[in-house]
Specification:
Low-confidence stretches: none
Order of helices and strands: EEEEEEEEEEE
Number of helices: 0
Shape: elongated
């Protein structure tokens, strides 16, 4: 079993900053990918940022230059540093991890956090 626990969401004024954290725990052999997604009512869940096991990153165009994704491998934790926040960033943010759970199999499993609300006032 794998659990993802998110923290760091909240209310912030436009131009401010927040840092989201997501800690993975449980039976994990390797974490191949961790990422952050967000969703607003009536829209599909969209990728915000992701980081691979080798450290490569990818960002949505709307957040490039403002958001930074990083990892702490010792803690199995991924962070999303969000700077220069805009009202358009208001959404529920979800942590995602793609993992293998055994050295004997290459099957990958997707796990999701419960979501954390980020609200940017204007």
């Amino acid at each position: 079993q794998v659990q993802l626990v998110e923290s760091g969401g909240g209310l912030v004024e436009a131009g401010g900053s927040l840092r989201l954290s997501c800690a993975a725990s449980g039976t994990i052999f390797s974490i191949n990918l961790m990422g952050w997604y967000r969703q607003t009512p009536g829209n599909e869940r969209e990728l915000v940022a992701k980081i691979t096991g080798t450290g490569s990153t990818n960002y949505a165009d709307s957040v490039k230059g403002r958001f930074t994704i990083s990892r702490d491998d010792a803690k199995n934790t991924v962070y999303l540093q969000m700077n220069s926040l805009k009202s358009e960033d208001t959404a529920v943010y979800y942590c995602n991890a793609v993992v293998t759970t055994s050295r004997h199999a290459y099957t990958e499993y997707n796990y999701w956090g419960q979501g954390t609300q980020v609200t940017v006032s204007s």
